[in-house]
Write a sequence for this structure.
C-alpha cells in the first residue's frame, strides 16, 4: 500500500467514525428531548387524574429511537460511543422510574429496566447499568 492509498483509507475510516458519532449524538438528543416530554406528561397526569397514556406513548416513541440507535452502538462501538448516548439513556431511565413509581409506588429495578431492552427473541440488549436511578430527583 503506497502512501496515497494509506491516507485515503485513513480518511475514509475517520469519516465513517465521525458520521456514526454524529448519528449517535442526534438520536441521543432526540431520546433526551422525548424523555423530558415524558416526565412533563407524567407530572401533568399525576396532578390531573393519573392518565399516563401520553407518557406511555412517549415511552414507545423513545423505544423506537433506541431501536434506531442499537445498530450504531453494537460490539466494540458500544464503548467507543457510550459517552455520546449515555445522557439520553439516563433521561429515559428517569422517566421510566417516575412512571413505575406513579403506577406501583415502588422503585423500578434494574431487571425491569433490562426487560425493556430485551428483543422479541429473548436476547438481552446491553442496557448500561443504572444510569438515571441515582439522579432520579432531577
Amino acid at each position: 500500500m503506497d502512501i496515497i492509498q494509506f491516507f485515503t483509507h485513513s480518511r475514509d475510516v475517520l469519516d465513517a467514525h465521525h458520521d456514526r458519532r454524529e448519528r449517535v449524538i442526534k438520536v441521543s438528543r432526540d431520546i433526551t428531548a422525548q424523555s423530558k416530554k415524558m416526565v412533563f406528561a407524567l407530572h401533568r397526569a399525576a396532578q390531573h387524574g393519573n392518565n399516563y397514556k401520553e407518557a406511555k406513548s412517549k415511552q414507545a416513541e423513545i423505544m423506537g429511537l433506541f431501536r434506531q440507535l442499537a445498530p450504531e452502538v453494537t460490539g466494540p462501538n458500544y464503548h467507543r460511543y457510550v459517552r455520546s448516548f449515555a445522557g439520553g439513556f439516563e433521561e429515559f431511565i428517569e422517566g421510566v422510574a417516575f412512571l413505575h413509581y406513579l403506577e406501583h409506588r415502588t422503585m423500578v429495578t434494574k431487571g425491569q429496566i433490562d426487560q425493556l431492552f430485551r428483543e422479541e427473541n429473548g436476547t438481552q440488549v446491553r442496557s448500561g447499568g443504572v444510569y438515571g436511578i441515582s439522579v432520579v430527583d432531577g
Q: What stands out?
A: The longest helix spans residues 3-47. The chain has a mean pLDDT of 88. The chain is about 70% helix and 0% strand. The two ends are 53 Å apart (CA to CA).
